[in-house]
Every structure is written in structure tokens, then in C-alpha cells.
């Protein structure tokens, strides 16, 4: 980490010295929009409505990079949208982020967005050359902190169809002759305790499980773990190799009580796209 977050907060406090500022995380793997979105999505609903949320994880995929370079060469940057800085009102909360796919992940479905505007660059902050977020976000954040007005007063209305969409891999289900129902899923995040937060949501699990809780977890190149779904870590003993439960956001966590399972399995946030789990049920229906 560098001093950019401190500079950002210092500029806010110059104008709004009594404004509470809460850091959710500065531990996002570099350029990992999906990971950053998960952490904000898991947190924002606990804040009061009207809260202003700033998301500054920057990333362009190879196709976007090529498009950007060509547009810059032809002096047509205004014709691409994934470099726009936006403010969105969603479920009573305000989100500030670059149009790099973040909004397609957190605002689902997109057609339920309440307001959306493109933010102008404020040249007064041009002296901060390596932290563009400040030039786009600072003034509207200050304005909305003082008085929650319509977003149309801090930016120009934006066509929702211009929102850049990310389409991450999702869990899928299948039936296998010798073991029955199978769910394949991946990893969203590894926390500081070595707990593995997966992309398997309880809604999908419940549809397939039909009340079953005795599971087999398969990890490629490793042993099969036989586990029982529990409500919390308190329901298992210290020496259990693996604990599976759904967290407060409804996603399956795989962990080890008082242990760092991700370390044992060699799963890190820089490697999460390489890992896939398979789950089957001990009881057939």
C-alpha cells in the first residue's frame, strides 16, 4: 500500500472534519475487481442508507486495453465508456467507481439502479497526477456529504446500457451416475485467517441439497474430505480437518477451526482463479 488512501481522506477531512470515514479493506489483490466487489457487497448493507461508498480497484482486460490504445491514437477516448467515472444510487446507497465492471457485479439487476451519472474531472486536483480518483470523486463526495441532493447535480445523466459488464465464472450443477448430484464451484476470497470464501451461494445449494447436509468435498490432486454442513464454527471440534458453513452473506465458507486451511491447501488470493471444488452428497435422493 502507498499513501494514496491517506491523501484521499486528508482532503475530505479538510472540508468535512467531522465526517466518519470507515476503511473496509486495503488488502485487495492487485487489479482484482471481483474480490474487491465481494468485500464491499458483504459490507455495505450494514451501513445506514445514504452512505457514500468509494471503490477504487482499477483494471482493464486485454480487450479493453487494446480498445483504449486504439481510441487514444485516434483521439476518440470519448467514444469508449469503461474509462468513465460514475456515481450510482443503488438500494439507497451511493457508489463511486470506475465503469470497469464493478457496477455489473454489485448492482444486480442493473435495471433497479435508482440514479446514475458520469462524473466530471475537477482540474483543481490536477496536481495529484498518479491518483485520478481524487479528481473525479472528491468534489461530489464533499457535495453529497453536506447535503444529499440528486446525483444529477454532481454529474450528467448516464445511459445504463453503457455500464461495462463482467461475467465471472459461476457454480454449476450436474448429475454423475455413481455419485448423484454434484456442484462445482470456485473461490471468491481468502481472508486473513485462511478461511476460503467460495462463490457457492446458499440459494443454489438449497435447491440441490433438499435438506442434505452430509457432504463430500473434492479438491483436484488432494484427498476427498467428508464433512457435515454446520451453522457456525462453534458446532465443531478443534481437530476437525475441514468446516463448511454459510456466512452472513450467504456464501459457503470452507475453513479449519483455529487453523489456516487455505495455507494447508496452498490457496492464496493470487491463485484463486486456479482452484475449483466439487461437492457431492453422501445421501442419494
Describe this structure in words.
- It is a single chain.
- The chain is an alpha+beta fold and 285 residues long.
- The chain has two domains: 4-162, Rossmann fold; 172-281, Bacterial fluorinating enzyme like (Elongation Factor Tu (Ef-tu), domain 3), CATH 2.40.30.
- 23% of the residues lie in helices and 24% in strands.
- It contains seven helices and 13 strands.
- Strands 6, 7, 8, 9, 10, 11, 12 and 13 form an eight-stranded antiparallel β-sheet that branches.
- Strand 7 (180-190) and strand 8 form a beta hairpin.
- The termini are far apart.
Helix content: 10-25%
Instruction: Tell me the number of helical segments per DSSP (H or I, 4 or more residues long).
Output: 7
The CATH topology of the largest domain turns out to be Rossmann fold
Ends distance: 51 Å
CATH-level-4 superfamily name of the largest domain: S-adenosyl-l-methionine hydroxide adenosyltransferase, N-terminal
Structural domains: how many: 2
